[in-house]
Amino acid sequence: xxxxxxxxxxxxxxxxxxxxxxxxxxxxxxxxxxxxxxxxxxxxxxxxxxxxxxxxxxxxxxxxxxxxxxxxxxxxxxxxxxxxxxxxxxxxxxxxxxxxxxxxxxxxxxxxxxxxxxxxxxxxxxxxxxxxxxxxxxxxxxxxxxxxxxxxxxxxxxxxxxxxxxxxxxxxxxx
Length: 175
What we know:
One of its GO terms (biological process) is proteolysis. This protein is α+β, with helices and mostly antiparallel strands. The protein has one domain (5-149, 163-174). It is built from seven helices and six strands, in the order H-E-H-H-H-E-H-H-E-E-E-E-H. It has a three-stranded mixed beta sheet with strand order 1-4-3.
């Protein structure tokens, strides 16, 4: 039912953890601050011991895409492609396969990714919609990503690619 554009607009969207993207983004923009998501803190507990496989990462840092890319970061550049996705340390190839499949259906992917960028109204905040138990759920995240020595811990852009939609979508799904 809610798989076409009209149905999506008619279907109410559940705000995960009651976070309102527009309100939070506008507040950050008016204050000149980048968003920090207190509901999914930039710390090892948000990753979980299973994904860390019991290892302590003493040099774990959380960085924003502009601090990790060799040029300006992009949310999507010249369309989303399965080639944008590079698996990291997490054993979530099932999730990455689903992402790759979604790139074959741009209309469906757009419902999840929405129009976002690192330039227009950038405030370090992004949001994604997931279809869960018969309803759309909108998840808000900040764009801080876990790294060790500037190496991504999880899904990351391919070398030379500055597209961050897969990294941020994986973070939203993890939340």
